[in-house]
Amino acid sequence: MNRAPIELTSFHHVYNRGTEKRHIFMDEGDRKLFLKYLYLLNDADIESPSRNMLASDKTETVVHKLVNLCAFCLMPNHFHLLLYECTEGGISKFMQRLGIAYTMYFNEKYARSGGLFQGTFKSRLIEDEAYLMRTIDYLHMNPIQHKDEEGAKMSLRKNDFATLDTYPWSSYRDYCGEILHPHILQREVLHDYIKLPKDYRAWLLEQNDFTDLGSLAIDG
Is residue 100 part of a domain? Predict the structure, then answer.
């Protein structure tokens, strides 16, 4: 999948995975650090993030963002982000920062060298409201996807939704009313484009067919 042209004031499904499909998150500390970087590296007023900045516990609101992060999901060997391009070149700059900073952290922690990710990030331009909503669903359902008997990438079982209620590494629970990632997420930008369900979990449970989500799948 080639990277889609990135357009200002547009939504993109952005993702990447470990080289040779290796795990990029080995423990809870890695995931927490990645989420911290999603916040710290989104400051357009900082030209080049320093090591001291990355080690900080900064929590104040970032005034000028490179991107708006609207949804996310971390899996053992890959991650998904729903980003809104709000600054010219913001997605590319943000993802470059994220890739470099996290690779440096990971290589130092695990005494390795070389690239961690399978090339540069991949992205898909989201061109309509229906695709935007289904992308949000797809990101959140990643922890409960299964392969069916024919080997299809996405086959979802409704009784697996209980897993999502306790999964801490996505924005699903924020969409269900919990406030877990207030400094990371900027869901409010979605309101100008789609009407989010008041009860997101109930809305998902009412859906009769999830098979079309398979078209959004990546080979993770």
Answer: yes
| Statement: the pTM of the whole predicted model exceeds 0.70 | yes
Q: Confirm if 140 and 172 have CB atoms less than 8 A apart.
A: yes
Nearest alpha-carbon partner for 217 in 153, 163, 174:
153
For the stretch 82-124, pLDDT in tens is: 999 988 999 999 999 999 999 999 999 999 999 999 999 999 9
Domain residues for 160? 11-210
* Residue 127 counted as domain residue: yes
Question: 51-59: long-range contacts (C-beta < 8 A, 24 or more apart)?
Answer: 54/101, 54/105, 59/183
> String of b and e for 25-42 (b: at least 16 CB within 10 Å)?
beeeebbebbbbbbbbbb
Q: Is residue 96 a part of any domain in this protein?
A: yes
In three-state secondary structure terms, 160 is helix
Instruction: State how far the Cα of 5 lies from the Cα of 81, in Å rounded to an integer.
Output: 16
Pick left, alpha or beta for residue 105 (phi over 0 → left; psi -120 to 50 → alpha; otherwise beta): alpha
Residue 4 lies in a domain: no
CATH of residue 145: 3.30.70.1290
Number of folded domains that form the chain: 1
Q: Which helix (H) or strand (E) holds 31?
A: helix 28-40
